[in-house]
Amino acid sequence: MSASTFWFLAVGGSAALTHMAVFALAQGRMLAELANALGFLIAFFVSFAGHRLLSFKDAGTSVGTSLGRFAITALAGFASNELVFMLLLRGLGWPALLALFVALLFAAGQTFVFSRFWAFRR
Question: Fewest beta carbons within 10 Å, which of 30, 36, 47, 74?
Fold first, then answer.
């Protein structure tokens, strides 16, 4: 396993845990879809900082360029996350945390590809 892959998994796991923790704390106070969005927003900053400093530290783009591109990448990942989450939660009646976990896994692959080959292009 390459160092980039290791750090991507470690940072992604940390961001996913942050997302899930914020979701778990917020879901009793708002709609599950809004709690998911809040979790995404907080985890975005964990994810960007970790990927910029660890996963893709040899990026050939400026921090500003990477941030803009990563924001687009992350929003695309969140859109697929939210669609899968709503389908599992509302359509199939899955428990909220399980639906979120599966949705996060689904979006992770897409985010890696876009991050590696565009947002933090080497």
Answer: 30
Distance separating alpha carbons of residues 90 and 41, to the nearest angstrom: 22
User: What does the alpha-carbon distance between residue 104 and residue 85 come to, in Å, rounded to a whole number?
Assistant: 8
DSSP 95: -
Longest dimension (CA), the chain: 44
**Residue 48, domain extent:** 3-119
- Residue range 33-44, pLDDT digits in tens: 999 999 999 999
Rounded CA-CA distance 78/63 in Å is 21
Q: How many domains is the chain partitioned into structurally?
A: 1
pTM for the model: 0.85
CA distances from 91 to 12, 95, 96 (A): 27, 11, 12
- Supply 43's token pair: 């985890």
